[in-house]
């Protein structure tokens, strides 16, 4: 069975200083209109790390370069693939996100292909679902699959508009 993973919709970095990374991308590369969401909580009821309940907090900042969403993640509390990444390799490019038409089929297909799910969960009462797979053997630390509700898509469009106006 061939599953379409969809287009790449996001490139993300993990950083120890979200403001400094925003400034670098804004001043050097013209990315503007960052929307920062401080202290986003991922709880053990809706998130798993290495198959176990996860409880962590991160600052997240979003912007766009053209139609490509850029995400910055600064871990604040708890264990996550973000803290593991910083401990292993320091700040840097963390993942690309694909948006498959059938999220569940894409996750199942990835697992069948031997890509283990490292972290998964949902946010905002199920308005967004995500699954991260280890992509290091293919040259990218992680590959994320995302499923976004109409409400989350509307928020993304608002951020994209703000980025164009910056």
From TrEMBL:
List the Pfam families: Glyoxalase_4
Spell out the InterPro entries in the cross-references: Glyas_Bleomycin-R_OHBP_Dase, VOC_core
What is this protein called in UniProt? Lactoylglutathione lyase
The protein's organism comes out as Mycolicibacterium mucogenicum DSM 44124
The protein's UniProt keywords, in alphabetical order, are: Lyase
Alphabetized PROSITE patterns for the sequence: VOC (PS51819)
Q: Which Gene3D superfamilies match?
A: 2,3-Dihydroxybiphenyl 1,2-Dioxygenase, domain 1
What broad taxonomic lineage does this protein's source fall under? Bacteria, Bacillati, Actinomycetota, Actinomycetes, Mycobacteriales
Instruction: Tell me where in this chain the VOC domain is found.
Output: 7-148
Gene Ontology MF, one = lyase activity
Under SUPFAM superfamilies, the record lists:
Glyoxalase/Bleomycin resistance protein/Dihydroxybiphenyl dioxygenase (SSF54593)
